[in-house]
TrEMBL record:
Domain of life, per lineage: Bacteria
SUPFAM superfamilies listed in its UniProt record: NagB/RpiA/CoA transferase-like
Family the UniProt entry places it in: Belongs to the 3-oxoacid CoA-transferase subunit B family.
InterPro entries: 3-oxoacid_CoA-transf_B, CoA_trans_fam_I, CoA_transf_AS, NagB/RpiA_transferase-like
Entry keyword set: Transferase
Acetylation found in the keyword field: no
Organism taxonomic ancestry: Bacteria, Bacillati, Bacillota, Bacilli, Bacillales
UniProt-recorded name of the protein: 3-oxoacid CoA-transferase subunit B
Transmembrane feature ranges: none
Length: 220
């Protein structure tokens, strides 16, 4: 399991029986392969599928069967297909239980930027804005830092904000944060990761759960 797969597998643990789940582009698409066998969820894709299955192997790719990111998918027995307008009506109507999204940045309030990079062309805003406003719970999955080593969890966003609605949970290769009324709360460290490393690589201020404090001397 590589780092991105680890993040996806950790996100899959947050899903519950009966959830209708939308998976965003990037790391979130990998979640489909790590849903626990004893948990039944219904994966939704905004291009018009309810009942997406695991990633197909090379021998079973159907070029006409793709998700919103144009990646090949499988469908489970009982899956349904519909137009984009109906798909977004499901989102805007509050029928999506959980959305798992990728991000460019997350700020200290849990708000995200994930649809545009200044100076680069934008094909469209996609479904992230609707998913943030319409989903009951939003989880973001991301590497903790950029390829250049800059923190992706920042005090203030420098990229265009996607929505004023904050996300509920942040899962990175280093840690898991809950977003609460008073800000970010570090609730879990990835295996082999120290609290000190998370502090060094996180620009935004955050609270540390009591169970993670070392000798009651470390504060964030």
């Amino acid at each position: 399991m590589n780092t991105k797969e680890y993040i996806a597998a950790r996100a899959a643990k947050e899903l519950k029986n009966g959830d209708i789940v939308n998976l965003g582009i990037g790391i979130p698409t990998l979640v489909a392969d790590y849903i626990p066998a004893d948990v039944q969820v219904f994966l939704h894709s905004e291009n018009g599928i309810l009942g997406v299955g695991p990633t197909p192997d090379d021998e079973n790719i159907d070029q006409d069967l793709v998700n919103a990111g144009k990646l090949p998918v499988t469908v489970l027995e009982g899956a349904s297909f519909f137009d984009s307008a109906s798909s977004f009506a499901m989102i805007r109507g509050g029928h999506v239980s959980v959305s798992i999204l990728g991000v460019l940045q997350i700020d200290a309030k849990g708000r995200i930027a994930n649809w545009a990079v200044p100076g680069k062309s934008v094909l469209g805003v996609g479904g992230a804005m609707d998913l943030l406003e319409g989903s009951k719970k939003v989880i973001v999955t991301t590497m903790h830092t950029t390829n250049q080593g800059a923190s992706k969890i920042v005090k203030d966003l420098s990229y265009p904000i996607t929505s004023e609605r904050n996300v509920d949970l942040i899962i990175t290769d280093l840690a898991v944060f809950e977003v609460r009324k008073d800000g970010l709360h570090l609730i879990e460290l990835a295996p082999g990761v120290s609290l000190e490393e998370v502090q060094k690589k996180t620009d935004a201020p955050f609270h540390v759960d009591e169970s993670l404090k070392q000798d009651n001397e470390v504060t964030a």
